[in-house]
Amino acid sequence: MNVTELFNEHYDALFRYLVRLTGDSDLAADAAQEAFVRLVERPPADRHPRAWLFAVATNVVRDSARARTRWFKLLSASPDRAPMGDVQPLPDAAAESAERKKAVRTALDRLSLKERTVLLMREEGFAHHEIAAAVGTTTGSVGTMLARALNKLAAELAPTSESLR
Hints:
Layout: H1 3-22, H2 25-41, H3 49-77, H4 91-110, H5 113-123, H6 128-135, H7 139-157
Helix pairs in contact: 1-2, 1-3, 2-3, 4-7, 5-6, 5-7, 6-7
């Protein structure tokens, strides 16, 4: 039986079991997903994949509970070392940031789908040959496409005389 068939046949029951086990649907979804990832990475040697999936998912939940307990003990012992969230920006800085994000989003939306794709894939660290395969072009043309897309984006984001007032 392949992984897709196993997923279709067992995921719902595994998820329900994990929700009942943990009382947390997010943790249950994560544990079920991890069980199927492990199934793909290291399929069981025996002929009982359903039992194997339930055992793996149960172990994932146990490991998660142990990790949370360790974190709680560590943080309780040294509350001054607890990670802190980022300092919230001042309202004017937050508004300015939101404006910049909106301007970039608008500028990106004005690019073609192919131009957006090459830019965003480059920003995610993809190599030119990977980008070429994704957009259906040659590796040699990716550099040209990137340069053109960057020029269009820069033109869209260039300050206008109105924005400088």
